[in-house]
Amino acid sequence: xxxxxxxxxxxxxxxxxxxxxxxxxxxxxxxxxxxxxxxxxxxxxxxxxxxxxxxxxxxxxxxxxxxxxxxxxxxxxxxxxxxxxxxxxxxxxxxxxxxxxxxxxxxxxxxxxxxxxxxxxxxxxxxxxxxxxxxxxxxxxxxxxxxxxxxxxxxxxxxxxxxxxxxxxxxxxxxxxxxxxxxxxxxxxxxxxxxxxxxxxxxxxxxxxxxxxxxxxxxxxxxx
Length: 224
What we know:
Structural class: alpha+beta
Helix content: 25-40%
Number of helices: 9
Strand content: 5-15%
Number of strands: 7
Distance between the termini: 73 Å
């Protein structure tokens, strides 16, 4: 039977539809409200990732704007940008998993074409995490140090010197649980340190705009 052609008004209605719902018969699981859901179909499953495990590296439009195209299993797909991948992986520092080698390899292969200014902006007040990985890269590849721009290392080292002048925060806080859920539990539950992740989530929830330049130094003492 020949399918009936939709009337013009029906076509126009479809064009104006902004909410397209898909109904699928799969089992879904809210694995973690902060960063991942899962959908299952028999023995197969798909991860829907919308942030990093600590809620910092949120998937936004820039992930897609700066994505590269590659062929995966015969299909053209968008590949996560190296900058955003590093931003997300930098906070993985568990006993059973550390993504530092992945970051080193991304820098090794993509360093000359990376947008280092965007990467620095992504890390925002977590710039010390970025510096730690860049130092590990320099250790792993002493013959490839120039892959990381000199201006970036100078900027991060300058910030480090500023923190030496600034001294300790007044608040007894442990931010280690931003990079590991397990390894710093003893600090928070037994050694009397404040929960750095909870503090960070509250501060992020204020929606305060942050830049990418030296003005970020003013946010470092936010826990005082």
